[in-house]
Structure formats: C-alpha cells, structure tokens
C-alpha cells in the first residue's frame, strides 16, 4: 500500500514542522508532494531537506484548493492524504491509516483532528459540515473518480468541507475516531 501526502504551501516557516512530522513515517513507494501557491523557493529548499517532492503550482491565494488539485493529479500512491503547511501529522498517523484502510480498502475514511491551541477535537458528530470536518481528516483511495477540490464557490477557505461532502455523497465514508493531525 503506497500513500501520497499532499501539502499546499505558501512557503511559511511552519512547513518545516509539517515536513518533519511526515518524513519519518513514509515507507518505500510513499511520497510527499508539496505544491507551492506560485513559486516558493524557501519551500523548495525545505522539501529537499526532508525528501519531499516540490512543485511550483498556480498562484491562486485560494487556501490551497488549486494546489491540492495539482497534487491529486500528480499522485502515484494508492491512497491520498492531505496536510496543510501549518499542520502536523501525529507520530503514528500513517501507521494508523495503513492499518485501518486495509480493512476497508475501497471507501474513503474520515479521521479526527485536534486543534493545537484549544485542544478541541473534530469531528464532533458524524456529519459533514463547515467547522466539523477539515482538510487533513479525509483519506481517499486513488482508484475513485474524485471531484475537483475547488468547486468555484466564492468562499475558497471552505472548500475542504465541500470536497469532503462531494466525496461522501459519491462513495460514502468510514468515520474513524483516531486523531491523525494536529491543526495550527
């Protein structure tokens, strides 16, 4: 089972912690693809240091929606995961994902995340809605025909829950209680 982690970035310093949380968890055949919102030379340097694959992406300022789409098109793994450049995966995130998706290899999974500052854990209820789900929670098999991350909605920062809703409407979702990401 090969995993692809996709990270959109604007090149901020927090990307280093994101990369450091993912790099030691990758197995042979896995990949971490980082897509810049435009040209991000500092991000490219950090990626080289941690063995991540960096690509300049379109400069859109759309909270990573277009960059995630580029990453999904480039992905070679069997499963897609998403982690923003100000978030970190828990030390056992990828091992947890490998273990649980093996039991249900054709349905997307929705894990939980925890906010670093407040300690609030999402999802609270097993409902896809703004404020209850976010980008690093969804894990999807690449064999599915996935919708575009960005759907043209005028509020770009809400594209994560809308993408998750469209995926769930198409394929269902397995609600997982494990926390795999710590958010900003």
Summarize this structure as a short list of keywords or feature phrases.
184 residues; Spore Coat Polysaccharide Biosynthesis Protein SpsA, Chain A; 5 helices
Q: How many angstroms does the end-to-end distance come to? A: 29 Å
Taken as a percent bin, the fraction of beta residues is 25-35%
CATH class: Alpha Beta
DSSP E strands, number: 9
Can you say what the CATH homologous superfamily is? Spore Coat Polysaccharide Biosynthesis Protein SpsA, Chain A
CATH fold name: Spore Coat Polysaccharide Biosynthesis Protein SpsA, Chain A
Topology pattern, helix = H, strand = E:
EHEHEHEEHEEEHE
Summarize the structure.
With 184 residues, the chain is an alpha/beta fold. It has a single domain (3-183), classed as Alpha-Beta Complex (Spore Coat Polysaccharide Biosynthesis Protein SpsA, Chain A).
Please, could you describe this protein's structure?
- The longest helix is centred in the last third of the chain and has 13 residues, at 159-171.
- Strands 1, 2, 3, 4, 5, 6, 7, 8 and 9 form a 9-stranded mixed beta sheet that branches.
- The radius of gyration is 15 Å and the shape is globular.
- It has a single domain (3-183), classed as Spore Coat Polysaccharide Biosynthesis Protein SpsA, Chain A (Alpha-Beta Complex).
- A hairpin with a 5-residue loop joins strand 6 (109-115) and strand 7.
- It has helices spanning 15-22, 41-50, 65-74, 93-101, 159-171, and strands at residues 3-9, 31-36, 53-56, 79-82, 87-89, 109-115, 121-122, 138-141, 174-183.
- It has 184 residues and is of the alpha/beta class.
- It contains 5 helices and 9 strands.
């Amino acid at each position: 089972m090969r995993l692809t982690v996709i990270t959109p970035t604007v090149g901020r310093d927090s990307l280093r912690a994101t990369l450091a949380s993912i790099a030691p968890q990758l197995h042979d055949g896995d990949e971490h693809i980082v897509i810049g919102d435009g040209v991000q030379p500092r991000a490219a340097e950090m990626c080289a240091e941690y063995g991540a694959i960096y690509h300049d992406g379109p400069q859109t300022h759309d909270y990573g929606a277009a960059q995630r789409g580029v990453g999904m098109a480039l992905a070679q793994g069997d499963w897609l995961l998403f982690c923003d450049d100000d978030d970190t995966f828990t030390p056992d995130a990828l091992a947890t994902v490998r273990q649980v998706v093996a039991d249900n290899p054709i349905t997307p999974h929705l894990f939980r995340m925890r906010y670093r500052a407040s300690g609030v854990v999402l999802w609270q209820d097993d409902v896809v809605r703004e404020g209850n789900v976010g980008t690093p929670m969804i894990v999807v098999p690449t064999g599915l025909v996935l919708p575009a991350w960005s759907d043209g909605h005028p509020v770009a920062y809400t594209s994560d829950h809308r993408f998750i809703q469209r995926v769930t409407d198409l394929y269902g979702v397995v609600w997982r209680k494990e926390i795999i990401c710590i958010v900003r």
